[in-house]
Amino acid sequence: xxxxxxxxxxxxxxxxxxxxxxxxxxxxxxxxxxxxxxxxxxxxxxxxxxxxxxxxxxxxxxxxxxxxxxxxxxxxxxxxxxxxxxxxxxxxxxxxxxxxxxxxxxxxxxxxxxxxxxxxxxxxxxxxxxxxxxxxxxxxxxxxxxxxxxxxxxxxxxxxxxxxxxxxxxxxxxxxxxxxxxxxxxxxxxxxxxxxxxxxxxxxxxxxxxxxxxxxxxxxxxxxxxxxxxxxxxxxxxxxxxxxxxxxxxxxxxxxxxxxxxxxxxxxxxxxxxxxxxxxxxxxxxxxxxxxxxxxxxxxxxxxxxxxxxxxxxxxxxxxxxxxxxxxxxxxxxxxxxxxxxxxxxxxxxxxxxxxxxxxxxxxxxxxxxxxxxxxxxxxxxxxxxxxxxxxxxxxxxxxxxxxxxxxxxxxxxxxxxxxxxxxxxxxxxxxxxxxxxxxxxxxxxxxxxxxxxxxxxxxxxxxxxxxxxxxxxxxxxxxxxxxxxxxxxxxxxxxxxxxxxxxxxxxxxxxxxxxxxxxxxxxxxxxxxxxxxxxxxxxxxxxxxxxxxxxxxxxxxxxxxxxxxxxxxxxxxxxxxxxxxxxxxxxxxxxxxxxxxxxxxxxxxxxxxxxxxxxxxxxxxxxxxxxxxxxxxxxxxxxxxxxxxxxxxxxxxxxxxxxxxxxxxxxxxxxxxxxxxxxxxxxxxxxxxxxxxxxxxxxxxxxxxxxxxxxxxxxxxxxxxxxxxxxxxxxxxxxxxxxxxxxxxxxxxxxxxxxxxxxxxxxxxxxxxxxxxxxxxxxxxxxxxxxxxxxxxxxxxxxxxxxxxxxxxxxxxxxxxxxxxxxxxxxxxxxxxxxxxxxxxxxxxxxxxxxxxxxxxxxxxxxxxxxxxxxxxxxxxxxxxxxxxxxxxxxxxxxxxxxxxxxxxx
Length: 907
Prior knowledge:
Subcellular location: Bacterial flagellum; Secreted
Keywords: Bacterial flagellum, Secreted
Oligomer: single chain
Number of helices: 13
Family: Belongs to the flagella basal body rod proteins family.
Domain Flagellar hook-associated protein FlgK helical: 93-327
Domain Flagellar basal-body/hook protein C-terminal: 867-903
């Protein structure tokens, strides 16, 4: 009995001694980071059967258990990754926000100062100090963009350096976890399966530290090892083996690092799959904030340079020349090539030439594009969003180079090279915009603040009409970028123009190179309609508008079988126009969609006016018609006073033909000038839109609405009366003799908006594919008020007009214009919107960081409640185990005394 009691006491002493050691170890490590509270697990020793039943034989420690919770550990790791990620994003966002919002470094103040200096220059465009201040503020604006570009570039470099550092840390932690796994398995084997708690704590600490670098998923093995996965299931640690991640140059963009994972030289790119932790935060910041910021500011710089350059080139300098580039050309060869990065893995030979031309800044977006030639054809390609991978469009280049793909305000130009399936290209249309901004103008004389055209009203005008100063629309061809023909000669408008009113509702525009003898333009601008009471624009503002013309018919001369009589109404003759079907189709310049409009069926002998009216029923077509007939060499043959001229015009709304008759026997009273005056004074002729002009020796008849003009000549039967007739469709003047009638059809001038094309079914009116000429002159002007017949207005080059500020005002108007992005924001509006979005992201990240930190603190608190050392609790356990230890020692003492008593009795 004494032996059993002794063993029981000894087991209790040893068990509580171990418990005291465990508790003491807990107390000693109360402030040790990563230490997990331990607990000695008591269990009773197996009982022995006695006559009275089973009797216990003492206590034992079966395990030293770590008090932790796997769910709470997972939660802490997850919250750690989230907090680290958001924290690094918020920290970097603060830098960008402070940079852009600070008046000392932001774009907005410099932009306002630039337009402020432009306002002062516009108030006194000939002032050299005002021009010098404008140049100074222009330089300041460029310097501000460069400052921001330098700071963003430095931050980008810092991010890339941090990514490399984080990758090294991840690899070191992965290797340490794998090694700890190995040590744990070894220690468990040596301890017959008992857990090496210190190694488990160490591994948990390594895993938690890894969670600050990247989001991880931890899976236990049956043998106690932990496997660690990152991304979308890529194994970083498998038991006692670890893989490595590398930060290497991106094949698509050598200026950016990508993350790959693998071992033994075999790596798989997982950049987009990396989330959480500082590494995930750096990648997220780079792709979601930094690169978009560079693209946004690049687009703004491109928009400013493009619009200012375009407007400045339409102005006139102090040296009477067109303005040149104000800022660097956004579509220089260097700039266009810099927007494309060929993939490093593209097959040899490396001979592909791809460039990007900025076409429309209002359609330009801030994303990057990935182009991949996917096959099966060597020219089949897909365009994707470079960040999200979403497909934007699929197309084929058709095997003909150069080829062009128009997309989001840019033209991707595939110039030449051996394009083939597998080729990839990164398109960054706006990334280099900030660094590419530079000032070209460096002399005050080169600032083009004046407009290059000048308009004037002739002093002899009697009407109340006025002509506007005029404004430039564009002095270069959008197709060739060459100066338009009207501006090809330096400091000249070729030709200068005169606007001459034939009556109150009709005008023509003539070549005024010889003011004493203005000539028709080619193509002509004759018989233009004028509406009193509104502003009438003289020229097309559409750079792609084209003009086609039907020149009218030849003069038809009929020799009747008997002499004509002035008293007998003449029959209306055929004007020579045959029947024709006119087809019209349009191509949407943005979508490429083809629209076919209803055909225009023209009956034979239609007047030009009727044909024009039919064409004007199609949207986008502006057709005008007029008939012009010149009469000269009036010859009154043998009998003086017998020659008489009759002009016959078809009536209106079914009314019979209307005729006007005049003799030309008297060289003064019946001269061509007198006949012209008489025709112009005739109310019937006025109502039919007939205008007569004369230079004293010839007579010009014009139908302002394209009616046929029929003339007849009568005289004595034996006289040789005659007159020569000339029209636009007649190569050689025709002679109208005594008792003959002739008719001439009108001319058609048709202006077609961009994308519209006209085709004829034969050569009756228009040729099947009529030649087109541009209807765009590069400038616009308007006339308002009520003109009088004979009023004229001139348009010429604005030589020495240095006090003119129209182009300065046009440049100033760019400040409020909508030129940036699909939202068509103003320059300051676009910048303010962008800065506001960065501020909102910063505030959001700041709030998220605080929330994430709070959640981490809570989850750590919950885990600490389970795994942390509570000194009060441990102190109570020390007392408890000490008392138990003393009690068990007393059992041993009693057992010894009993044993000594027993031995004494035996002695």
